[in-house]
């Protein structure tokens, strides 16, 4: 397994804020929403994510939850 493989990233807009730092994000170019959570660094530095914010999401290649890594 390759260690230096870059994760799949996408840009999206937060549609809904859920409990336990979960969010529903609509990715650009797709009609469906995906369930995402905040990355550890965003939790550590207490970066707030609100409904309507544009965010960068690392997507799981197997179709699970995504991880919000940056607020744009």
UniProtKB/TrEMBL annotation:
GO terms for cellular component: cytosol. It comes from the Bacteria. PROSITE patterns: S1_IF1_TYPE (PS50832). GO terms for molecular function: ribosome binding; RNA binding; translation initiation factor activity. Keywords: Initiation factor, Protein biosynthesis. Residues 1-72 form the S1-like domain. Gene3D superfamilies: Nucleic acid-binding proteins. SUPFAM superfamilies: Nucleic acid-binding proteins. PANTHER family: TRANSLATION INITIATION FACTOR IF-1, CHLOROPLASTIC. Belongs to the IF-1 family. This is Translation initiation factor IF-1. It comes from Candidatus Kaiserbacteria bacterium RIFCSPLOWO2_01_FULL_51_21.
């Amino acid at each position: 397994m390759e260690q230096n493989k870059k994760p799949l990233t996408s840009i999206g807009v937060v549609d809904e804020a859920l409990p336990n730092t979960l969010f529903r994000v609509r990715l650009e170019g797709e009609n469906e929403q995906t369930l995402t959570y905040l990355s550890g660094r965003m939790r550590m530095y207490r970066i707030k994510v609100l409904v309507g914010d544009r965010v960068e999401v690392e997507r799981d290649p197997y179709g699970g939850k995504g991880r919000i890594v940056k607020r744009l």
